[in-house]
Amino acid sequence: MYAYQRLIFPQWQTETGVNEIYSMAGHLVRRLNQISMAVFSERMGELGVELTPVQYAALSSIRETPGIDQATLAGAIAYDKATIGGVVDRLAGKGLILRGMSARDRRARALTITPEGEALFQRVTPHIRTLQNDILSGLDDAEKTQLLNLLRKTTDAGNTRSRAPLRRHNEGESA
């Protein structure tokens, strides 16, 4: 065991030292995702809102790009095309978005936010911005900025390895 591990991770020491998983990015990213999901769910519950992080991401992207189609939406939020349909179905079922005919491709559905979706977006967004600090509790502002910059850098570097790579609006598919 390295000396820094004894100092940084005393709560994770075992008889043989620090469990190696606590030095693995994949494990720590998974744990941070668990924390993020719990904080998000708790805050939405306090507001009496049934909304998941991916539904919020989709709603935000639909709001930013009215008329976006499902395939482009999937790329915009780095979500796989096979399951984005369920996200869209749930948002439409809640009356937060509408699916209409795409002017560019009759096979595609153009997605737009409804007035109810806009009202919900306006209501929850300040809370979602605030809960980011709860997700990164234990870090000061400089550390939060550093972590976010490093997360962006590493996710950009590994983007093509993802089963659902992020596609910016001007890459590949168009809305």
Quick structural overview:
InterPro entries: HTH_MarR-typ, MarR/SlyA-like, Tscrpt_reg_MarR-type_CS, WH-like_DNA-bd_sf, WH_DNA-bd_sf. With about 180 residues, this protein is mainly alpha-helical.
Helix and strand composition category: mainly alpha
Per CATH, the architecture of the domain at 3-10 and 21-133 is: Orthogonal Bundle
Query: What is the N-to-C succession of helices and strands?
Result: HEEHHHHEEHH
Average pLDDT metric: 86
The termini sit apart by 52 Å
| Coarse morphology | globular
Number of helices: 7
Strand order across the biggest sheet?
A: 1-2
- What share of the residues lie within helices? 55-70%
Radius of gyration: 19 Å
Question: CATH topology of the domain at 3-10 and 21-133, which one?
Answer: Arc Repressor Mutant, subunit A
Binned strand content: 5-15%
Biggest sheet descriptor? 2 strands, antiparallel
Runs in which pLDDT lies below 50 for 5 or more consecutive residues are: none
**What is the tally of beta strands?**
4
Instruction: Give me the CATH superfamily of the domain at 3-10 and 21-133.
Output: Winged helix-like DNA-binding domain superfamily/Winged helix DNA-binding domain
| CATH top level class name of the domain at 3-10 and 21-133 | Mainly Alpha
